Amino acid sequence: MRRIELSGTHAAMGEGFGEAFRAEIAQLYAIRLENALRQATQYGGRPTREADLLRLSRACLAASERFDPRGTAELRGIARGARLSPEQTLAMNGLTDLRDALAWGDLGELGADGCTALIAQRDATSDGHPRLAQSWDLASDNAPFIVFVQRAPSEGPRTWSITTVGCQSLMSLNEHGLSLGTTNLRTRDAGVGVPYLGLIHRALEERSAADAARVIASAPRAGAHSYLALDRSGAGRVVECTGKLSHTFVVERGTHVHTNHCQIPAHIALEADTPRKSSEARLARMRELLAARTGKIDSAFLRACYADPAGASLAICRRDFDGISTNAASVMTPALGELWGCAGIPDAPEKWERLL
User: Fold this and answer.
1) The pTM of the whole model exceeds 0.85
2) Which domain, by its residues, includes 83?
């Protein structure tokens, strides 16, 4: 996995990130623009242009600035370094949320991806250390842009994140031992707000899973996601959010798995074109794997779970089915400051690296 170290002010870190990957960021923006416009039209029946996306992104940029000024300063720095507009850079970061808002959301005047994430609590693990793990499934043409980013800001904690070039934090761990992951959800109340990477980026300034969950639950969100948080003390939280609603699960024992469909009845009523067959298959399979190993789960076992091929196109490990594949995966043990990562399909032990 490629790596980059950034330090200094948030604006300076952003500029350095943008400059280092300028050509690739332009390529990734073009790929994600095409994806957003195509799927907004395909799923929502709304013919959409780049101008529509950027108009929505501009409104979300204002919401992001109010929510997290430092994170937005970094985002603007990325734009300067990459020679894109801030609206283009935020649209690239917030692809799934903005795509859903264009398809179904109430934009006012603005006019079957996947992921499998889990928390394994101390009673479920072999060494008593809880773990948070996640795969990140998206269009296969995003995979070459995966990068491991170490941020050492002049204000705020150091963070380590598996993400894509020019983008804020995704699968992440901070110096206080707080780890975060996410899965995409699709609901009809997406709209103007802070995209999911901006929420994770801001939540990484916290020390505890409970505080990170509160930041996300109270935020003005652009779209639906589940967010998993696990801290050094072993406290675990999962926040299932729509654009407007949220529910927090406290994970004290056993395991909790989230894929790409809502688990809360009030949220299910808002779902839109959820890829339920794939999502439910991956949820059931991961629960089956974890249940068979409860009390003996370790990092090596979780890495093997993300290589599981059962179900073919419905598998946890996705191999370019209909243009979607597992782009990256991670296994984090906050109490040990340990982060394992894989860039690309995690189907073999040698593809994984211990990044921390």
Assistant:
1) yes
2) 3-110
